[in-house]
Amino acid sequence: MKKLKVIAFAMLMLAASKIQAQEKWITRNGKINFFSKTTAENIDANNNEVFSMIDEQKNQLAFQVLNTGFKFEKALMQEHFNENYMESSKFPKASFQGTITDPSKVNFNKDGIYQVVVAGNLTMHGVTKNLSIPAIIHVADKKISGESKFDIKLADYNITIPSVVAKQISENVTISVNCMYEPYSR
Amino acid sequence: MRIIVTAFLFLIAKATVAQDSLANILDNEVNQQLKTKKQYTYATFKGTQLVNSRTIETLGKHDLDFRVSHRFGDIGGEFGGEKSFFGLENSTDVKISFDYGVTNRLTAGISRSKGATAVRQLYEASLKYKLLRQTDNGGMPVTVTAFSNAVVSSMASNVKPNTPDHFNSFNDRMSFTNQLLIGRKFSDGFSLMIMPTYIHTNYVTHNDQNDIFAVGIGGRLKLTRRMALIADYYKVFRSTASTNNFKEIGLNFYNPLGAGIEFETGGHVFDFTFTNSTAILENQFIPYTTTSWKQWRFRWGFNLSRVFSLKKHK
User: Fold this and answer.
1) A59 contact residues in B (CB cutoff 8 A)
2) What confidence score (pLDDT) does residue A1 get?
3) Between A88 and which of A14, A82, A98, A124 could a Cys-Cys bridge form, CB atoms 3.0 to 4.6 Å apart?
């Protein structure tokens, strides 16, 4: 009987921890915009199939996105993006994993708009770089959304622009992220 | 008791899963998407033309492709050599074309070419439609595109009867190509195409045939990110009777073979080619190539393409 009590207790503990472990949020249709601006041409692409998760217990964030999911204004741009620059068949996805640097700045259980900095690793085109990215987390009505905007330097990720198109493609591109999360459950 | 243990084990299992790192969960999610969502193969060929052949590729919606193709004179043989600067001072055919992407799968085109047989001054209208699209994640192994054109000659009719350019009516001026282009991107750097072809010429001379079948094969091998080797070849099935008839008057037909190097620079594609065929339109180079590689009767040529996006779409 004593044994049984121990087991029951352990079970309760586990159940409790399980509830805690459920404090994860996910989106499968987050949005990432890629924008390159030059005097000759603007390149604007959207991906509306961004996978992202937030673990509010560990203050962690993760993103994954398929390069082929970026839709461009021009069909040729999309082809060049995948074939010549991202080499999507070799490196099909880009990912980011980061941690909120100052967890005290955000309360996932209280409505509000929280400005945070997320530090972590961005991996694309086979190169991983450490980045600190400013982000805004919105908590409203038990829902979480996040947005961020930052610049990356293409050369940092071994993406080279041939001189003939250097006028059309900016060395730095602006990445905008916008995600609305739902509670994650398996 | 057993029930409790089972429940306990079950919970442990669930809890372990829930402990998975965010990255692992997302990995699974993305891999699932890669498996289930159709990933259409892109860039099987660069642009809508190989050396002589069309490719399975169609233009993007609202894209306009401006092309100039040129074939010079024989490098060697009777007409080549130093006196024509290895053919560079002659041009056997020139073609200027505009193709437009009506949808991502339908391309419509018009062209004008000089023409390399007795039939000259050619206007062409063409349609290309992508019937099937290869997928990277299984399901569809090939891309299949149908191509058809109608060509009309605007030249003055030859007064001499039984000549290829003796036209009694407007219909006599017309010829047609119908092709099925079946292509597959085998790897990042290698794509291949098989092209069953049917050509109909409304008016032909006595020895000739109105209908000709041919099967083409074409390939592209990427050398660097922006440079590729390209080649295409057609096996032409002309009847023995017709072949012999032409032989009697001293005319031999050869299968057209072209090879070249393709350069791509963001919107421009430049092909530097060698072909034994003199004409640029299928209607002529498939049935009427009379120059052979073996006699040094092949030539330099180029295809130049510039794609303009006329309308942005999201």
Assistant:
1) none
2) 61
3) A82
Residue A2 phi/psi, 5° resolution? -60, -40
Give chain B positions within 8 Å (CB) of A79. Answer: 42-43
SS3 A150: strand
- Residue B30 is part of which domain span? 1-37
Q: Which two tokens stand for residue A139?
A: 């908590």
| Alpha-carbon gap, residue A84 to A75, rounded angstroms | 14
Q: pTM for the whole thing?
A: 0.84
The answer to whether the Cβ–Cβ distance between A76 and B14 falls below 8 Å is no
Q: What is the pLDDT of residues A45-104, one digit of tens each?
A: 999 999 999 998 899 999 999 999 999 988 888 999 998 899 998 899 999 999 999 999
3-state per-residue secondary structure call for B41-105? CCCCCCCCECCCCECCCCCCCCEEEEEEEEEECCCCCCCCCHHHCCCCCCEEEEEEEEEEECCCC
User: For residue B205, is it within any domain?
Assistant: yes
Do B151 and B176 touch, CB atoms closer than 8 A?
A: yes
Specify whether B216 is located in the same domain as B89. yes
Q: Any CB–CB contact under 8 A between B125 and chain A?
A: no
Pair (B31, B60) in one structural domain: no
Measure the CA–CA gap between A181 and A142, rounded to whole angstroms.
10
The answer to whether B95 and B69 are in contact (CB under 8 A) is yes
Contacts of B102 (CB under 8 A, 6+ apart): B61, B108
A chain contacts of residue B188, beta-carbon cutoff 8 Å: 89-90
Q: Which H or E element spans position B12?
A: helix B2-18
Burial class of residue A61 (count of CB atoms within 10 Å of its CB; 0-12, 13-18, 19+)? buried
B43 contacts A83? CB cut-off 8 A = yes
CB atoms within 10 A of CB B266: 18
Single-letter amino acid, residue B29 = E
How far CA B140 is from CA of A82, B89, B104, in Å, comes to 20, 47, 18
Q: Are B303 and B49 in contact (CB under 8 A)?
A: yes
Chain B residues in contact with A97 by the CB 8 A cut-off are: 22-23
Mean predicted confidence (pLDDT) in B220-246: 95
The tokens for A183 are 């509670």
* CATH assignment of the domain containing B106: 2.40.160.40
Question: Does position A21 have pLDDT exceeding 70, yes or no?
Answer: no
Residues B14 and B140 in one domain: no
Strand-pair partners of A113: A138
Element (H, E) at B26: helix B22-36
Q: Nearest CA to B147 among B48, B235, B238?
A: B48
Choose from A5, A89, A159 for mutation: most chain B CBs within 10 A.
A89
